[in-house]
Design goal:
single chain; 381 residues; alpha/beta; 6-stranded mixed β-sheet; 15 helices; 14% strand
């Protein structure tokens, strides 16, 4: 390639970057307007239902009317209109407003994002129904926080989660991990909220000291239902099944995990040792060694993992990378044994369990401060 070609290529890439930027902004604008429309419709219908002006049949008639007036209009079925009411009722509640102020949720969104005011609600009503009385809402201000994910994701979260804590978590997590609807549905089914927001008794003292920000990034339970493993299986089968379904496994771990190698060789003296799975974590900027165990956790497993980390840090880790992390992935782990094993370990290690099948999600109420502070350090007092 000539110098001219290289210059042209560089400039062409700049043009491509401009197009990509504005295309992304256009999509974000469309999403924001969809959310605003859903918010206003939800507010309007919610008021009519609460004041017994409308009944459930009226909502169905509204859906049919909209479809008849504009056959191309999508997303205003009876169930979706009720979802819009749920969106408005949930995020205009005083409970959410208190969380929004406490956790400074609006700081997650760029200031330029549009914000709806009560006066705008009046202006948004079509001309043909100007004669209808418009109700002012005390807590009806649109939360910029909602713009962090899509309207479809919001509907999924609202119907799957019963507490404001869970709903806030999944909106933030969808934004951080850029989850599409199928990925979000899986997170809801396997209760990612509980896995990431637990007390993290499975983290070593060394991991907490070296990576105090790591807890919200590392799950203590990994669901591998997509592997189709029988109750009794070997480590080799577990490893091969993971490699055959690597994309799903990485999505389950978290999108910051990048696969590096399998059976990664570590030469120490005249002996060669092999790490079952080696990853790199973009957020923590470090290598992550995963050792697979198909039986119950035993304290002696920690020695092997810590040895691998020492070899990785001495011989493999680059100067710009942080100390390596080790994850022992077991089929079962006794909580007390794990706590004892972790309490004095100075190496950055953790124990995680894998589940062959999805467990029905229990409704939990946990504090979101750790997670929101991790995503937005400015929200700390």
């Amino acid at each position: 390639m000539s110098n001219i070609d290289r210059v042209e290529t560089s400039e062409f890439q700049q043009v491509q970057g401009i197009i990509s930027l504005h295309r992304s902004q256009a999509l974000q604008t469309v999403n924001n307007e969809n959310l605003l429309a859903a918010w206003e419709v939800g507010a309007f219908v919610s008021d009519r239902l609460k004041n017994s002006v409308w009944g459930s049949k009226t909502v169905k008639q509204l859906s049919e009317y909209l479809r008849a007036q504009d056959p191309t209009l999508r997303g205003y079925s009876r169930s979706n209109i009720y979802n819009m009411v749920l969106l408005y009722d949930s995020y205009s509640s005083m409970q959410f407003v208190e969380y929004q102020d406490k956790l400074k949720l609006n700081e997650f969104v760029q200031p330029a994002v549009a914000q709806i005011e009560n006066t705008e609600t009046v202006q948004a009503v079509p001309a043909q129904i100007d004669s209808v009385e418009i109700v002012q809402f005390e807590t009806g201000q649109f939360p910029k926080f909602l713009n962090l994910t899509t309207l479809t994701n919001h509907f999924e979260i609202l119907n799957a989660c019963k507490t404001v804590e869970e709903r806030i978590f999944y909106v933030l997590y969808s934004h951080k991990e850029r989850l599409n609807i199928k990925e979000l549905q899986r997170c809801l089914k396997n209760n990612t909220f509980a896995s990431l927001m637990g007390d993290k008794h499975n983290l070593s003292k060394g991991l907490k000291n070296i990576y105090p920000q790591a807890a919200p990034m590392l799950k203590d339970t990994i669901f591998v239902d997509f592997l189709g493993l029988p109750q009794k299986h070997s480590e080799k089968r577990l490893q091969n099944s993971i490699l055959d379904n690597l994309k799903d496994f990485v999505l389950e771990l978290g999108k910051d995990f990048l696969f590096y190698d399998k059976e990664y060789p570590l030469q120490v003296g005249n002996s060669t040792f092999k790490v079952d799975l080696l990853f790199f974590h973009r957020g923590l900027q470090c290598l992550v060694a995963i050792e697979l165990k198909t039986n119950k956790f035993k304290p002696e497993y920690m020695g092997q993992l810590e040895f691998y980390l020492e070899a990785l840090d001495r011989d493999v880790r680059r100067s710009n990378e942080n100390p390596s992390i080790g994850i022992l992935l077991c089929q079962e782990a006794d909580r007390s044994v794990v706590e004892y094993a972790m309490s004095r370990s100075l190496s950055p290690t953790m124990i995680a369990e894998y589940e062959r099948q999805l467990i029905p999600k229990e409704v939990l109420q946990r504090s979101l401060e750790e997670f929101t502070h991790f995503l937005n350090p400015k929200s700390k007092k």
